[in-house]
Every structure is written in structure tokens, then in C-alpha cells.
Specification:
Elements: E1 2-12, H1 16-27, E2 32-35, H2 44-47, H3 68-73, H4 83-96, E3 103-104, E4 109-115, E5 120-125, E6 130-138, E7 160-163, E8 178-182, H5 186-195, E9 201-206, E10 212-214, H6 222-229, H7 231-239, H8 259-272, H9 288-305, H10 309-314, E11 328-330, E12 342-346, E13 352-355, E14 359-362, E15 365-368, E16 371-374, H11 383-386, E17 389-391, H12 398-401, E18 420-422, H13 435-455, E19 461-463, H14 465-480, H15 510-522, E20 528-530
Parallel strand pairs: 1-2, 1-6, 2-3, 4-17, 6-18, 7-16, 8-9, 8-16, 9-12, 10-11
Antiparallel strand pairs: 4-5, 5-6, 13-14, 14-15, 19-20
The chain binds flavin-adenine dinucleotide and NADP nicotinamide-adenine-dinucleotide phosphate.
The site of NADP nicotinamide-adenine-dinucleotide phosphate has 24 residues, from helix 5.
């Protein structure tokens, strides 16, 4: 079926990226349609409604910067906003800029085919409708496709099963129940911390412990009032940082700093809380000796927080470098294990054998539960794009092209797939950063490119193969200068069986990336073929 609708631009996804992209293009008069699988805006914050979900970048910075009036009008209540507040923010933005009338909800893009003759993409959705557009912008999210590992017997379990990434909208009453949580990444940590006080008994099944820094969350207080007096300055500075948020990056090498001074610096960052911790010294991500020292500091903090030394050791990460996976920002996670109703099963010692009608058998021990919560992560960065059958004019699919790892120029486009842009695509800083900064930069870059094409009477844009090859090599080389590829992380695709292991984000930093992206644009889109 075809509804014969033809647009200038189709945007896939109505998370923060798709919403801002729609706003920008509407302002410039493009006929734009957004297609979103969910029934409302918000993306990550629409889907991930598990107890305790909140941001790991302070709300002052994990928010849009494009409209100073929005910055002034919106009031965050906490230093790190929780999911309901983040979703309300997305809904407020949709209402304020009247976005919803351009969004088709409950609709999933399944196929896209490029016609070079027509210079158009045909976009087919799960309701059988086809639409065409000159440009497609995939704002499909880096962490939007849940990973659902196979647990033998899960279907036999007679109790309730919930995935954190698809938490029921009506909420779940967990009080007085016996719970299992599988997964101890950020989603698992936040869930465990939030539910431990209300459940009867909680058993955590841990495969790999996480490095976490305290959030010191609380009412936002004066921080917001202060930010509102100098928001412009904060945003300008953040765009040029490595991480996309204010983070006093240490200029010293840990390995050349006195032990006492190292301790003082870590203590200060620990007291302040949040993701600035690994930026304390410039060699933490580059030198294993420095990395070990930072990791040992965090393990020392775990020993202080967990009363039982044996348990503290089990909760201490040792098998991968600190910050080689996105660090967790916690609000009392480790202290949870001092509660009598919480226990830990290290599944390296007692592997999950199967899930039964009544619970989980790990090692030889059966554990009985009323509820199992799975916090097992996402098919990150490429998952949402590869879920769509994207075909070029010569019928080559993006999935095939990326079988050995994603190939892009600037994380924005991939050769052979003209007029298809990606927001926070692989080989851009994206998941290593404050994603709001990276999203806004990409949306602005793409918008500027479309304006350039329009002003110059051009209708087709595609990366040159050599520019793409160079960019892939650059991102691989940059990653190899760090310790990050040493972890079996989702940055590497290691959490998905059969996925090619390659470090996917651009590790050169947000500020450096911006300089490169701006330079390419100024140089009339150097490395792209325009016609
Ligand atoms: P998303 O919010 O993922 O939105 C993508 C949208 O595209 C989704 O609504 C999805 O339904 C839709 N979509 C995908 N494929 C299709 C399709 N084929 N057809 C139709 N629709 C489709 N980042 C930070 O910087 N700081 C944080 O604190 C932070 N916290 C996070 C917490 C959680 C629980 C998770 C999972 C991620 C977090 N992130 C965080 C990363 C977060 O994903 C980004 O910050 C940001 O919200 C991404 O916005 P987006 O619009 O790019 O993607
Ligand atoms: P994740 O970091 O990938 O964690 C998944 C967890 O599930 C890991 O502990 C993993 O163990 C475990 N797991 C996966 N498959 C398993 C299996 N078959 N058996 C046992 N355990 C298994 O996913 P996430 O916690 O959803 O976080 C993903 C990213 O989303 C974060 O890194 C962050 O960028 C973002 N996020 C941010 C926040 C926030 O604080 N704002 C909250 C949630 C998510 P292994 O490590 O051994 O694979």
C-alpha cells in the first residue's frame, strides 16, 4: 500500500534527536515527517521507565541548548533528573514547538530503498505504507534496540518477567515480592538501588561488576539559578570539551604526580560526584598504570561502602580498565548490599543453568522468585539501523556493508547510501559524550548541509569512499591509543553474539570532532560528493 505521500525529509525516531531535527527543518520550511515506533515522543525516556531511571549527566547540561527561552523557562527539580521528569521535558518540548502534528506514532520503519533516478528514498513501514522523501535522517538512537539474551527456560517461569528497556507504562508493584535482577550495568544498578528498600528479598545475578561514581543527587537548588545566569557560556564551553559537558579535564599525568596529590584529586572528584572522575588525569584512558591506580581508588571506595569484605571483593571490577565502559553514576548502590534482604550470585562461580517455573537455578542451587527483571543492555550503535532493511540503488544493503563493523564518514553518512544521514551514528563521539551536546551538533550540521544543497541547487550528497576509509582508519587508530578496546563492552559490540568486535565511537573527543566537522562544512563539504 502506498499513501503517495512525498516529503522533503523523513526523520526516523522522535527521541531528543528526532524532535530537535524536526524543529530545525520546520523552521526552514522543509516538508518533514517523523516516523516513531512508540506512541509518544521521548525515545530513551519513553521506553526506559524502570524504577530509579535517571540521567548520568547533570540536567543543566543534559538538556537542549537551542532556545535560550526554553532554558530559562524549564525548571529541573534535581541535579540528575529522573525518567518521569525527562519524559515530561520531552513532552513539553513537543507541545511548545507544536511537533506532534508532524509525527506519525506507533509506526516502525522496516525497509528503505534508494532510487538514483528519482533521487528519492522509498520508506516502508510496518503498516504496509510507503512514503518517499528526498532525504532520510535516522534519529533511531544508539541505545534503542534491547538485547535479549536467551535464558533457557525463561518462557517456563510462572512469575512476572520485566525488561528494564521495555518497562510497563502502568508501573509494577514490587512491594513484598521476591525478586531476581540479571545485569549490573547502569540500568541494573539504578533498578537494584531503587527497588531494594521495597521488596521482600532481592537476589542480584552479576556477571561483571561495574565501576560506579556517586551522583550526590539531590534538589537542584542554587545550581539551576546560577546556570540560568550564564547558560550561554556553559554551553559554548561544553561544546569544546572532550565529553560534551563541563568537566575540568586534568592536564597532568597521573604517573608523574605524587601519590598524595593523586589521592587529593580523586577525593575532590569523588566528593563532587559524577562522570568527571575519569577526567582527573590525562593518562587514565591511555596508560594502564594510570588506569590501574584510578581503578584501585574506586575499588577502595567499594571496600569502604560494603561491610562484608568478601562481598566487596565480588562487587569490585578487576577484569577490564576503568572507563573502558561508560561508568555508572550511583545513588547508594553498593550500600544496598549491607541490607539483610539483598544477596549477590556471582554467575562466574555459579552459572545460570536454567530458568524454571519457580525461579533460577544457578550452579546447583535453585532460587525461588516472584519476579525476574532483566537489565541486559542493548544492541548498541548499529542495532537500530541494522534492524531496517536499508538498500542502495544497486540493491546493496547497509547491513551487508557493515557486517564487519560500521563504515561511515564522520558518523554522519555511509558511502553508497546517498541522502541518508545519521544522528550520533557510529564513528562519532555520541555515546562517549553528553549525548545532548552530540545530538545538537549533528542536527545543526545536517541542517546546514541541507541548506547548502538547497542554496546551490544540488540534490544528492554522499561520502567519497576514500574519505570514508580514512575516517574509519582514523577512528580505529584513535581508539587504539586508548585502553578502551581492551574491554568486552557494548562499545565493541561484544555483548551481542556474532557481532563484529570493533570499537564503534569516535574517541577523539567532542571538541576535536566539532573542529573537524566544522572544517569539512566550511571547505564545501570536503570528502563528500555533491551533485
Ligand atoms: P532515542 O532516545 O533512543 O530515540 C530513538 C527513537 O527512534 C526511539 O523512540 C525509537 O522508538 C525510534 N526508532 C528506532 N528505530 C525505529 C524505526 N525503525 N522506526 C520507527 N522508530 C524507530 N545519554 C546521556 O548523555 N546521558 C544520560 O544520562 C543517558 N542516560 C541514558 C539512560 C538510559 C536508560 C539509556 C538507555 C540511555 C541513556 N543515554 C544517556 C543515552 C540516550 O539514549 C541519549 O542520551 C538520548 O536520549 C538519545 O536520543 P535519540 O533521540 O538519539 O535516541
Ligand atoms: P549494559 O551496560 O550493557 O549492562 C548489561 C548488563 O547485563 C551487564 O552487567 C551484562 O554483563 C549483563 N548481561 C548481559 N547479558 C547477560 C547474560 N546473558 N547473562 C548474564 N548477564 C548478562 O546495559 P545497560 O545497563 O542498559 O546500560 C547501557 C548503556 O545505557 C549505559 O552504558 C549508558 O550509556 C546508558 N544508560 C545510562 C543510564 C544512566 O545512568 N543515565 C542508565 C541506564 C543506561 P556483562 O557486563 O558481563 O556483559
Amino acid at each position: 500500500m502506498s499513501d503517495h505521500s512525498d516529503h522533503d525529509v523523513i526523520i526516523i525516531g522522535a527521541g531528543f534527536a528526532g524532535m530537535y531535527q524536526l524543529h530545525r527543518l520546520r523552521q526552514l520550511g522543509y516538508d518533514t515527517r517523523v516516523i516513531e515506533a512508540g506512541e509518544d515522543v521521548g525515545g530513551t525516556w519513553y521506553w526506559n521507565r524502570y524504577p530509579g531511571a535517571r540521567c548520568d549527566i547533570e540536567s543543566i547540561e543534559y538538556s537542549y541548548s537551542f532556545d535560550p527561552e526554553l532554558e530559562q523557562d524549564w525548571n529541573w527539580s534535581e541535579r540528575y533528573a529522573a525518567q518521569p521528569e525527562l519524559l515530561s521535558y520531552a513532552q513539553h518540548v513537543a507541545h511548545r514547538y507544536d511537533l506532534r502534528k508532524h509525527i506519525t506514532f506507533n509506526c516502525r520503519v522496516e525497509e528503505m530503498t534508494w532510487s538514483d533516478d528519482a533521487r528519492r528514498w522509498t520508506v516502508t513501514t510496518d503498516d504496509g505504507t510507503s512514503r518517499t522523501a528526498q532525504y532520510v535522517i535516522a534519529a533511531t538512537g544508539c541505545l534503542s534496540v534491547p538485547s535479549r539474551p536467551q535464558f533457557e527456560g525463561l518462557a517456563d517461569f510462572k512469575g512476572e518477567v520485566y525488561w528494564t528497556s521495555r518497562w510497563p507504562h502502568e508501573g509494577v508493584d514490587l512491594s513484598g515480592k521476591r525478586l531476581a535482577v540479571i545485569g549490573t550495568g547502569s540500568s541494573g544498578l539504578q533498578t537494584i538501588t531503587a527497588i531494594a528498600p521495597v521488596v521482600d528479598a532481592l537476589t542480584v545475578f552479576q556477571r561483571t561488576p561495574s565501576y560506579a561514581v556517586p551522583a550526590h543527587n539531590g534538589p537542584i537548588g542554587e545550581r539551576l539559578a546560577d546556570a540560568k545566569t550564564r547558560y550561554h557560556e556553559i554551553r559554548e564551553a561544553s561544546r569544546m570539551t572532550r565529553t560534551g559537558f563541563q568537566c575540568n579535564s586534568g592536564m597532568r599525568s597521573l604517573t608523574e604526580t605524587e601519590a598524595e596529590e593523586v589521592r587529593r584529586e580523586f577525593d575532590a572528584r569523588w566528593a563532587d560526584g559524577g562522570l568527571c572522575f575519569p577526567s582527573a588525569f590525562k593518562d587514565i584512558l591511555r596508560d594502564m598504570k594510570a588506569n590501574d591506580a584510578a581503578a584501585e581508588y574506586v575499588r577502595g571506595r567499594i571496600r569502604e561502602r560494603v561491610k562484608d569484605p568478601e562481598l566487596a571483593e565480588k562487587l569490585s571490577p578487576r577484569t577490564y580498565p576503568i572507563a573502558s565502559k561508560r561508568m555508572c553514576v550511583d545513588t547508594g548502590y553498593f550500600e544496598v548490599y549491607n541490607q539483610d534482604n539483598v544477596s549477590l550470585v556471582d554467575i562466574n562461580e555459579q552459572p545460570i543453568r536454567r530458568i524454571t517455573e519457580r525461579g533460577i537455578t544457578a550452579g546447583d542451587t535453585p532460587h525461588e522468585f516472584d519476579v525476574i527483571i532483566l537489565a541486559t543492555g542493548f544492541d548498541a550503535m548499529t542495532g537500530a539501523l541494522n534492524a531496517i532493511d536499508i538498500r542502495s540503488g544497486d540493491d546493496r544493503s547497509l547491513r551487508e556493508k557493515w557486517a564487519h563493523g560500521p563504515r561511515t564518514y564522520l558518523g554522519l553518512m555511509s558511502a553508497g547510501f546517498p541522502n541518508l544521514f545519521m544522528v550520533t551514528g557510529p564513528q562519532s563521539p555520541s555515546v562517549l559524550s553528553n549525548m545532548m551536546t552530540s545530538i545538537e551538533y549533528h542536527v545543526d550540521w545536517i541542517t546546514r548541509a541541507l541548506e547548502y544543497l538547497r542554496e546551490h541547487g544540488l540534490s544528492r550528497m554522499e561520502p567519497a569512499l576514500d574519505a570514508e576509509d580514512n575516517w574509519v582508519n582514523t577512528t580505529n587508530d584513535l581508539a587504539a591509543l586508548t585502553v578502551m578496546p581492551q574491554a568486552a563492552s557494548w562499545y565493541m559490540g561484544a555483548n551481542i553474539p556474532g557481532k563484529q568486535r570493533v570499537f564503534m565511537p569516535f574517541a577523539g573527543g567532542v571538541g576535536t570532532y566539532k573542529l573537524i566537522g566544522d572544517g569539512v562544512a566550511v571547505a564545501h563539504y570536503h570528502g563528500f560528493e555533491l551533485s
